[in-house]
């Protein structure tokens, strides 16, 4: 995790000034917050409304506490989503709507240069690379955008997002090298031509912040000048400051997520960044060696299958708090507070405008700790689970003169809906919640659920509730001195995930019940809701006065007014219907790798005869450059063929290679297998795995060569190298073969190399590698496999090399159901294959079972996956070592999740074989 910070002097200097063009350095310790009473420029008040492309110009500044949008404080709660990791543009809307529902008000989007640029000067922003569509969708879902186009983005992407062709140039990336800056400028020019049209400052979109990759001052100045020349006038965020922001890397569980983000809040952060909000898929040859699996981030709040995970609840609660309770956008350090038990560490903060006090209490021990904590003049008993954290508050205004005196629960939201003041507090299931309100006038509480108990004593209303799993407890509080009614809601984590506040242009709405609320619109007397259900559930709506009718996904519901002043649906909303997936059968098989045969025609291949390279890997003395990048082959498998002369008496061949994680090398001599070598060492720590494979010629092959008078005249050495990933830290390290040595003879070798054919014009440069089947369209829909061998399932033979399997299947998912489907390769003991998966021609990633035979699930994104009674083509390219039985074992479809609702999904272009 990273906490970017700003010095007090620099922060004071910047107070109240524009952040357009910021590129300063500096830091501020989270221990150096301003003391209570320090003068601020803008008082605490309502946050700006949800953003949109409204045609109005907006002013973005900052002071010592937070961003200011049109003079209002904004606590940015940004979640990272990489559009390129969801190659189905229709589903961008699904994820953005889920992020908004879970409390995010901004999406941080990185762009992968390598996905857009297959060659110098060539750029593609269409299809799954349509940046304009993504930014339009973000505006339509009322989300701010923090754009990060790099040029280097890291993000466990091949070469950190730098294009493969850059490896074969003299440009020194991420420096002020003029050659690099020319390439980077060209990339940013194409990005900025789109981004400038969507800036919030111009009212034409919701792009709020622009993030720079500028580790060096000279480069930073150049890029800043470049962006301004391109018309980018939103604030710039260099990678090393100056705006105080908190970035949380992957967290192991919900407890760690709470600790990390509450620590940022305690440190004065108001620019919060969640890494990552949506995990996504590193499809094709996109993943860097640091994260070679297709599933990018299993720890994300929304997983690869677009489902909430156990980290969603704390992120949802804190996001809603920052969005709905402005007190937390301006906090000063307050007098120190200690818990009775020293295992609890306390950070005490105060809002100087509202008098709200916040207490971030952290427990780094393994045991649950119950202790007295001084809050608001009272010693309050609190419990913090082991290795967890909690946020408590006192003095929080809850409407109509009522204030929170203290509580052992965390506030989640406080909002006004018509003449209702609604406040929600959250805790863990099984806890006894205790909440105390300061009431200026004697309240008239009404228990709406049996679990609640209350008592009023000397101006304080005490409420106790035993929290149960997925149960919302309501309490209504009235007073004869005000016409405003308070609705107090108490929830555990699960119940909090069914509470959905929504701000419309005509007023606020709060919904309880469904699995997701996507949208709410007020239309006359009707509130129109759209969202998802997973299981049958009730629906409860708090809406402004005059709203009497409710529709759900277009259907009108019969409702009644409840005692909590909410509209109740008379009938439960239906859950998702049962879905049945087809079995995968009808497989056909065909072996390939004709490149291993001595008579194969490689005259069209590229001669590997260069003498010098821009690689950081030295070229071996006396040998030609064999590095794949130098010949334009940057992704996927690479074939080599060496014609040996003077090889009589050859005893063994040693082949050195450089790969990413899980590298693999196969070799043949005159069509006879020499063996397979797996690059299994730990690498160099920078993302490069190197190995030297020594193959002794089999006895039978050596005997046959001795019997042939012409054996030394000419031989053909064929080599296949897999996993040519580029490291993020050393993107110019050689990939593919690096050298060859021989024992028993000193042959002369003329090398040729072949990798991927021309990049797929729709799927992009990272979709295909250099396998024979890929170069000839065996992975594409429409390929005629009628003459392939029918087999019951993939696998079974023991030949060294590549074997392809193909089948087709159909799904029939109802149009109002969002089904997330995965492809499961079960694995089998004794089988250690490599398999590349293609769905409708799209490369979904690699199944690598070298170390384990455990099942692996590949998420098949809707859009690429045809779910509405249309044919899907599934192809597997299986690499086998010739020793273990090949094939992944059972291959099956699995329903990963389903919801009644979803978003309309457009088929992703998946062109078939061109004849």
How would you portray this structure in words?
With 915 residues, the chain is mainly β. The chain has 4 domains: 74-278, Alpha-Beta Barrel (TIM Barrel); 327-569, beta-galactosidase, domain 2, CATH 2.102.20.10; 591-754, Galactose-binding domain-like (Jelly Rolls, Sandwich); 765-901, Galactose-binding domain-like (Jelly Rolls). 12% of the residues lie in helices and 35% in strands. The strands form 12 sheets. An 8-stranded mixed beta sheet has the order 1-11-12-6-7-8-9-10, covered by helices on one side. A 6-stranded antiparallel beta sheet has the order 48-38-49-54-51-52, with no helix packed on it. A 6-stranded antiparallel beta sheet has the order 39-47-40-45-42-43, with no helix packed on it. Mean pLDDT is 91; it is low at 1-40.
Brief overview, please?
By secondary structure, the chain is mostly beta strands. The chain has four domains: 74-278, Glycosidases (TIM Barrel), CATH 3.20.20.80; 327-569, 3-layer Sandwich (beta-galactosidase, domain 2), CATH 2.102.20; 591-754, Jelly Rolls (Sandwich); 765-901, Galactose-binding domain-like (Jelly Rolls, Sandwich). α2 (89-101) packs parallel to α4, α5 runs parallel beside α6 (217-229) and α7 runs parallel beside α8.
């Amino acid at each position: 995790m990273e906490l970017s910070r700003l010095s007090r002097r620099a922060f004071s200097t910047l107070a109240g000034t524009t952040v357009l063009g910021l590129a300063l350095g500096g830091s501020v310790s989270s221990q150096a917050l301003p003391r209570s009473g320090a003068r601020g420029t803008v008082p605490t008040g309502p946050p700006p409304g949800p953003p949109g492309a409204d045609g109005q110009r907006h002013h973005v500044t900052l002071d010592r506490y937070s961003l200011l949008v049109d003079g209002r404080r904004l606590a940015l709660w940004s979640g990272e989503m990489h559009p390129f990791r969801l190659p189905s543009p229709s589903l961008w809307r699904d994820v953005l709507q889920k992020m908004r529902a879970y409390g995010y008000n901004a999406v941080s989007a990185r762009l992968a240069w390598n996905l857009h640029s297959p060659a110098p000067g060539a750029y593609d922003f269409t299809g799954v690379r349509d940046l304009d569509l993504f930014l339009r969708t973000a505006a339509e879902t009322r989300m701010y955008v923090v754009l990060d186009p790099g040029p280097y983005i890291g993000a466990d992407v091949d070469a950190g997002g730098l294009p493969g062709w850059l490896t074969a140039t003299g440009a020194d990336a991420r420096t002020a090298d003029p050659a690099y800056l020319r390439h980077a400028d060209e990339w940013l020019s194409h990005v900025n031509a789109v981004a400038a049209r969507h800036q919030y400052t111009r009212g034409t979109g919701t792009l709020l912040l622009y993030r720079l990759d500028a580790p060096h001052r000279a480069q930073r100045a150049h890029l800043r000048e470049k962006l301004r020349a391109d018309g980018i006038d939103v604030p710039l965020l260099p990678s090393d400051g100056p705006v105080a922001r908190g970035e949380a890397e992957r967290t192991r569980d919900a407890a760690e997520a709470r600790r990390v983000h509450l620590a940022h809040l305690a440190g004065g952060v108001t620019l919060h960044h969640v890494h990552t909000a949506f995990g996504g898929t590193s499809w094709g040859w996109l993943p860097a060696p640091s994260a070679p699996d297709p599933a990018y981030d299993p720890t994300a709040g929304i997983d690869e299958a677009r489902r909430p995970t156990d980290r969603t609840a704390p992120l949802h609660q804190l996001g809603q708090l920052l969005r709905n309770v402005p007190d937390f956008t301006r906090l000063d350090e307050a007098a120190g507070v200690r818990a009775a038990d020293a295992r609890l560490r306390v950070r005490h903060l105060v809002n100087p405008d509202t008098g709200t006090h916040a207490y971030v209490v952290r427990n780094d021990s393994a045991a649950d700790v119950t202790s007295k904590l001084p809050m608001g003049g009272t010693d309050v008993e609190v419990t913090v689970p082991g290795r967890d954290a909690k946020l408590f508050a006192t003095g929080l205004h809850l409407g109509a003169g009522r204030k929170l005196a203290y509580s052992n629960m965390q506030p989640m939201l406080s909002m006004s809906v018509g003449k209702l003041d609604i406040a929600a507090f959250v805790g863990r299931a099984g806890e006894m919640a205790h909440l105390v309100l300061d009431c200026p006038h004697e309240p008239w509480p009404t228990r709406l659920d049996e679990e609640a108990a209350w008592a009023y004593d000397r101006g304080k209303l005490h409420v106790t509730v035993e929290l149960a799993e997925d149960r919302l407890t309501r309490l209504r509080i009235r007073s004869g001195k005000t016409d405003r009614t308070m609705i107090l809601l108490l929830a555990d984590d699960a119940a909090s995930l069914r509470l959905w506040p929504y701000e419309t242009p005509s007023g606020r709405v709060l919904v309880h019940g469904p699995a997701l609320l996507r949208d709410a619109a007020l239309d006359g007397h009707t509130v129109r809701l759209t969202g998802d259900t997973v299981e049958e559930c009730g629906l409860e709506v708090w809406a402004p006065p005059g709203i009497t009718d409710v529709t759900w996904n277009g259907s009108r519901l019969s409702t009644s007014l409840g005692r909590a002043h909410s509209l109740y649906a008379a009938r439960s909303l239906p859950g998702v219907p049962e879905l049945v997936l087809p079995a995968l059968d009808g497989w056909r098989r065909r072996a390939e790798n004709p490149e291993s045969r001595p008579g194969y025609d490689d005259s069209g291949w590229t001669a590997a005869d260069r003498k010098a390279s821009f690689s950081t890997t030295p070229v071996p003395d006396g040998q030609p450059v064999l590095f794949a990048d130098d010949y334009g082959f940057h992704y996927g498998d690479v074939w080599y063929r060496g014609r040996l002369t003077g090889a009589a008496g050859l005893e063994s061949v040693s082949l050195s290679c450089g790969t990413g994680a899980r590298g693999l090398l196969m070799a043949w001599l005159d069509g006879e297998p020499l063996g397979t070598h797996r690059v299994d060492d730990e690498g160099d720590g920078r993302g490069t795995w190197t190995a030297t494979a020594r193959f002794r010629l089999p006895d039978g092959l050596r005997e046959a060569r001795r019997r042939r008078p012409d054996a030394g005249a000419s031989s053909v050495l064929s080599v296949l190298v897999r996993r040519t990933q580029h490291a993020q830290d050393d993107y110019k390290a050689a990939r593919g073969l690096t050298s060859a040595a021989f024992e028993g003879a000193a042959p002369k070798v003329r090398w040729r190399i072949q990798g991927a054919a021309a990049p797929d014009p729709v799927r992009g440069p990272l979709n295909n590698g250099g396998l024979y089947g890929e170069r000839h369209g065996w992975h594409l829909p429409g390929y005629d496999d009628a003459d392939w061998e029918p087999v019951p399932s993939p696998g079974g033979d023991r030949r060294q090399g590549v074997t392809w399997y193909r089948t087709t299947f159909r799904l029939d998912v109802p149009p109002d159901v969002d089904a997330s489907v995965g492809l499961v390769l079960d694995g089998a003991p004794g089988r250690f294959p490599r398999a590349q998966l293609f769905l409708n021609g799209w490369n979904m990633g690699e199944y690598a079972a070298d170390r384990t035979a455990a099942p692996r699930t590949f998420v098949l994104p809707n859009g690429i996956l045809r779910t509405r009674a249309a044919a899907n083509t599934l192809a597997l390219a299986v690499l086998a070592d010739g020793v273990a039985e090949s094939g992944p074992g059972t291959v099956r479809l699995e329903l990963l999740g389903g919801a009644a609702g979803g978003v309309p999904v457009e088929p992703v272009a998946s062109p078939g074989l061109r004849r």
